[in-house]
Amino acid sequence: MDKLTKKGLDGTQLKTIALVLMVLDHIHYFFEFTGCIPTVFSMLGRLSAPLFLFCTVEGFAHTHDRKLYFLRIWAIGTGMAAIEFFMIYGHMFRRGDDFYPQNAIFQDFMLLCIVWQGMDWIREKKIVRGAIAIAAVVGWPFFIVFLLQTFPQLQSSALFGFVVTSPLPMWMAITDGGWSFLLGGVLLYALRGNRRVQLTAWALTVFLCDFALIFGMACRQDGFVWTQMFTAYYEWFGVAAVLLMLLYNGQRGSGHKQLFYWFYPAHVYLLYGASCLLYNVLR
């Protein structure tokens, strides 16, 4: 294992693999309506988000400027969420079939950065500061519910809706990732000191959340057959990303630093725009 790790993949190589898989996934996501894109594109794409999550864990742990790291992620996530807000509530920029992109993984990363910093503060014996950071993320949705119950008029406030959707999102309401993704991010960071324990715990958690739990709910549906776990409910395929994570050699890699930040929003809106044009042509 030690020799394999030294000869393995650095951070840049892992992100490049994740990027390619992400593009395949999003080609399926945006052009599925044509009936011409194979589902295998989406299946392979299940590995992309876990790989980016793993790389973000390593990036946050090793960056020399955590504030800048966080602000960059927050800015991209907030900008994309703002566009999504107008698509959802203003029905703007939607495709002819009412489809719109719900790609918000940067918001997941932003919330995780706060939790990770809180975990580090607790390790440094800054208990109160760390607890406040973690509680702020976990408790924010419940505080919002309290505000809505106390001040019902906020439910009709577009500004309030924008704030809790874009710059100050709630982990329960983010349209990408989900609670199991966030839990996986916490485990990956908490167990960084032991790679085998870290990845074993992460893989088991993903399998339990995305396979066992989903299977338990799906098997109660009429007409469900177990093979659908491989054809319809294949989110759990992402657990295979652990094989690539095991090859990480601990090196950052070189080049393309800004590419991985800006490629995400750029390719999402380029593919979405192309899908809108194609939809209008085929309609």
Offer a quick outline of the entry.
This protein has twelve helices and no strands. The protein is an all-alpha fold.
Radius of gyration: 20 Å
Q: Could you report the average pLDDT, rounded to the nearest whole number?
A: 95
User: How many helical elements?
Assistant: 12
Helices and strands, in order, run as: HHHHHHHHHHHH
Which word captures the global form?
Answer: globular
Share in helix: 55-70%
The poorly predicted ranges are: 1-5
Write down how many β-strands occur, each being a DSSP E stretch of 2 or more residues.
0
| Category from helices, strands and their pairing | mainly alpha
- The fraction of residues assigned to DSSP E strands is under 5%
Give a short account of the largest sheet: none
Taking the alpha carbons of the first and last residues, their distance comes to 54 Å
Structural description of this entry:
The chain is 66% helix and 0% strand. The chain is built from 12 helices and no strands. Mean pLDDT is 95; it is low at 1-5. Helix 9 (179-190) packs antiparallel against helix 10 (195-218). The longest helix has 24 residues, at 66-89. The relative contact order is 0.16. With 283 residues, it is mainly alpha-helical.
Which properties best describe this structure?
mainly alpha, globular, single chain, 283 residues
